[in-house]
Design a protein that fits this description.
This protein has about 375 residues and is of the alpha+beta class. The chain contains 10 helices and 17 strands. The longest helix is centred in the last third of the chain and has 14 residues. The two termini are about 25 Å apart. The protein binds fe (ii) ion. The site of fe (ii) ion (FE2) has 6 residues, from strand 10 and strand 14.
Length: about 375
């Protein structure tokens, strides 16, 4: 099956209007040090804090921001909290892909009525800046979607957080603008169930499908379907492993994450040459594609604005679809376990996800897997 971008769904069918990604919350072993990494390596600004000093006895959280992207890094303060158990099992990883909605109660009630598993009943959080309504439902693994309603709130983030104040200026932003998509890895045979979950429970549409013939190398294969909400601001590709000669990158993830979870978060930039130059200068490590990739690039994607030699030097990949083209690059995993990584993406019209790069990319991942003794 050829990958195909389906028509955008119409607004009137949308029973779950979503304004965008509100934040992504990571549960980590040490939020203070993770915050420093995201600030120094990725150019995020630390803007908020919640911890012992603010009356939070169980967890510490740092709120980071760059462009419209908000990351929340939360660590346990005691060994027996839910956050501690999550980190023990999964290592550092994504707990919550929080969605910004106008009516969190309606979003919760409608999705639960359609079959979602409730995680947090609607709750009103108030302080002198107004009120936030928050509720959450479960998705794959231990991952959840919070619904965040903030139309009656004009504070920093949400009640309980204070501004983070530190004289260290930090590193400049690298030009990351917004979350383009978040990819989930699920177990063999589970992809269709989660595709149905996003379709039936959340009203998402299947934007693109890839089968194991599109995405396969000599050793491993995977299948993927991209689910998107009505306005396409939220895009969730769901991967499952397909049988191959060796262990696929998805299986390696599932083994080390101990189950389904977020594989990568793609962050958009308007100037990928600048963004990747800066990230590399700060020590962010990316997957290597062989230089032969660039020998046939022009032939494959046609004319593009960016100089090929600059793309080759930085290792940036290019793909074209009927709507335009995109530039993308993938980091190595950003924690000790070979689990979560990042994609940096610049879209120049293209609405797809770089299928033309999958083979080169997965071979690059397999070289890393082999180095880890996991292929
Ligand atoms: Fe991606």
């Amino acid at each position: 099956m050829e990958p195909h971008v389906h028509a955008a769904p119409t607004a009137e069918q949308d029973f779950l209007p979503i304004n965008g990604t509100d934040y992504i919350e990571f549960y980590v072993g040490n939020a203070r040090q993770a915050a420093h990494f995201y600030r120094t390596a990725f150019g995020f600004e630390i803007v908020g804090y919640r911890g012992l000093e603010t009356g939070s006895r169980e967890t510490t959280s740092y709120l980071l921001r760059q462009g419209k992207i908000r990351f929340l890094l939360t660590a346990p303060l005691t060994p027996d909290s839910f956050v501690a158990r999550h980190v023990l099992r999964h290592g550092d990883g994504v707990r919550d892909i929080a969605l910004w909605v106008d009516d969190a109660r309606a979003a919760f009630e409608e999705t639960v009525r359609r079959g979602a598993t409730p995680v947090y009943e609607p709750e009103v959080l108030e302080d002198e800046h107004g009120r936030i309504v928050r509720a959450a439902i479960a998705t794959y693994g231990d991952t959840i979607h919070s619904f965040i309603e903030r139309r009656h709130y004009d504070g920093l983030f949400m009640p309980g957080f204070v501004a983070w104040d530190n004289p260290y200026a930090g590193a400049a932003p690298v030009g990351l603008k917004y979350v383009d998509h978040c990819v989930g890895n699920v177990n063999l045979g589970e992809m269709e169930a989660y595709v149905r979950f996003y379709a039936d429970v959340m009203g998402f549409k299947n934007l693109i499908s890839f089968d194991d013939k599109t995405i396969s190398t000599e050793y491993s294969a995977l299948m993927s379907k991209v689910m998107a909400n009505g306005n396409e601001r939220i895009k969730f590709p769901i991967n499952e492993p397909a049988p191959g000669r060796k262990k696929s990158q998805i299986e390696e993830y599932l083994e080390y994450y101990r189950g389904p979870g977020v594989q990568h978060v793609a962050m958009a930039t308007d100037d990928i040459l600048h963004t990747v130059t800066e990230l590399r200068r700060r020590g962010v490590e990316f997957l290597h594609v062989p230089t032969t990739y660039y020998d046939v690039l022009q032939e494959r994607v046609g004319r593009i604005d960016e100089p090929l030699d600059a793309l080759a030097e930085l290792g940036i990949l290019v793909d074209r679809d009927p709507d335009g083209y995109l530039l993308q690059i993938f980091t190595k995993p950003v924690q000790d376990r070979p689990t979560v990584f990042y994609e940096i993406i610049q879209r120049k019209g293209a609405r797809s996800f770089g299928a033309g790069n999958f083979k080169a990319l997965f071979e690059a991942i397999e070289r890393e897997q082999a180095l880890r003794g996991n292929l």
